[in-house]
Amino acid sequence: MRKYLFALFSVAMLIGCQSGEEEAGDTSTESESVSEETIEQETTEAETTEESTEESTEKSAEDLTEESTDSEGSENEADNSEESTESDTSSDQASGESDSEQVNVLATRCIISNLGDCEGVPLEAQKAEYERLLNEGVLGKMDVTDTFLEDVLGSHLTMHNQNDAGTFPEDRYPPSSVDDTIKYFTMELENYYNGESEAALGYLKEGSSLYQSTVENKKAGDFMDYKLYDVKVMPLEDSAGPDSREIERVYSHASSNGIERDRVSYDTPENNSGDNGKIQLAAIEDHELLEENIDYEEEINEAYGSANTAPAHARECVIQFIRTCKSDAVDDVRDAYDQYVANGTLPEATEAESYPARIDESRTEIDYAIRAAGSMSAKNYVNYFQHYAYDLMQYYNDKSDDVIYYLEPDSEAYDAIVANKETGNYNDHENYLVNVDDKNFSYMSNPPQKMILERVYSHATSERKRKNSVLYKLKLDEVSGIKIISYEELSDEPFDE
Question: Residue 435: helix, strand or coil by DSSP?
Fold first, then answer.
């Protein structure tokens, strides 16, 4: 029985062990399955994480790329903006430069003509152009002057590059006329009554009745908003007497009846200028109101052209050609003249042939009324021969035939110079020094009949530099001014530097 029970117990134990092993095996399998699932899940999660990371990375990269692109775009926009700004600035600068290169050539003509051709050119435009030419060194300045009229006239007498600029006494005012004094006083009244300038008082004799009344008019305020539309100095024959000059004005101001026209007679006795030559106004002789509340349109003359870019000394020479110009600047002088003609400042000479004659003709056409202290006509001939020496060199070098314009046709001088060129001996001609000796110039002869030209030169057959002195005989031509009839060589010798 015990054996039976023991056997049953053994069988039961055996079955239990097998069952435990199976359960254990199942458990292991389940554990393995769970582990595999966990691994798979972890792998999946890892893959998901990687995918997420990759997506995140890609997205981040895309975002960065987009941001970078946006940033680059912003930088590009900024660059473009800067470039645009620079471009705009450059454009503005270019525009400014372009504007600065444009001048009112009628104002330039006004100053060049010594205030002889200023019709319709506003006073402020005249002053601005005068200052521009002064600052560029084209005009000199006489220190004794204290009105715009005297400034301009003084500048024409004291061109700063001239060796003889001091020939006019520094303690004297430049010679002006009563007409000009009245005209520019009237023009300055606009700025004076409007509180912009005291320049008008410079034309008046201090303490005179006209001085006092002008000052009182301003204090009263009745002449505020003064506007001058036109002023004309009446011809001498229309004036009341020899000591009276009349002007007609068109103007308006705070107390006028619209635009008015009046006529004013100034008392201008001969003693109205002091010992220093300064002309000043002292009294009004008569005043007549001609029209009130009239329709009037101001005529302003403006014409813009390119500023003359020739050197200042060359422009100065054209402006003040009656004085001595630099002998080594003939090319520059011609360029200055050509530019003045091209931009409309000077009218083109239609009859004259040589450059000196062209310059004189052009200036004559704009009423070039030089107010000189004494006879300066010798200087015209100095300039003439400087140009002649240059053109002679160009002629022998087969570059220009302009020297022919200086010679009287069929004269001894004409035949000799043409023959010289034909020989070829004067090729490679060069001038090193040109001096015009005007000792033979006679102020009593008009024009001078003789001038001496001294040159240091060389050419194809001279072997070295030589110095010669030649006496020229001249005649006056109505168009060209001067014509050479003949010449005589006074000396010719080697030049030792």
Answer: strand
One pLDDT digit (tens) per residue for the chain, 497 residues: 444 444 444 444 444 444 444 444 443 333 333 344 443 444 444 444 444 444 444 444 344 333 344 444 444 444 444 444 444 443 343 333 344 478 999 999 899 888 888 888 999 999 999 999 998 888 888 888 889 999 998 887 776 434 444 456 667 788 788 889 999 999 999 999 999 999 999 999 999 999 999 999 999 999 999 999 999 988 766 555 556 688 999 999 999 999 999 999 998 765 566 667 888 899 998 999 999 999 998 888 889 999 999 998 888 888 876 666 777 788 899 999 999 999 988 988 888 888 888 888 887 777 655 444 333 345 567 778 888 998 999 999 999 898 998 899 999 999 999 999 999 999 999 999 888 886 665 554 555 678 899 999 999 999 999 999 999 998 876 655 678 999 999 999 999 87
Helix axes 330-342, 355-365, angle to 10 degrees: 40
What is residue 272's DSSP assignment? Answer: G
Dihedrals φ, ψ of 479, to 5°?
-95, -55
What domains appear along the chain, each with residue ranges and CATH number?
Answer: 105-154+172-291 (3.10.450.50), 403-497 (no CATH)
Instruction: Please say whether the beta carbons of 241 and 253 come within 8 A.
Output: no
Helices (H), 158-249: 178-193, 209-220
Q: How far is CA 30 from CA 23, 35, 36, 37, in A?
A: 10, 8, 9, 10
**Cα–Cα distance, 450 to 439 (Å, whole number):** 10
